[in-house]
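Researcher: Quick test of sequence recovery. Tokens follow.
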């Protein structure tokens, strides 16, 4: 048995039953967290795209005024 595992077992022996249940709850929490992270990470890696790639189909599809930032009159009242 590894040293840390032995230390945990020895520490558990000195705890009351309610305290041992609390330790068990924490261990189960850590296990579920590990499983959630393992199931989420592969999906995140597959779907990682830049904003430009995600919005590519919509760039230039709307007609309207050109760049409002080039005319300071459009920014009146916005503190700029």
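Model:
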């Amino acid at each position: 048995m590894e040293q840390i595992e032995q230390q945990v077992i020895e520490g558990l022996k000195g705890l009351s039953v309610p305290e041992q249940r609390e330790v068990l709850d924490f261990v189960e929490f850590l296990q579920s967290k590990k499983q959630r992270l393992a199931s989420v990470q592969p999906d995140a890696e597959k779907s990682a795209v830049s904003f430009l790639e995600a919005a590519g189909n919509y760039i230039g599809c709307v007609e309207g005024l050109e760049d409002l930032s080039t005319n300071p009159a459009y920014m009146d009242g916005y503190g700029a």
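The chain is about 60% helix and 0% strand.
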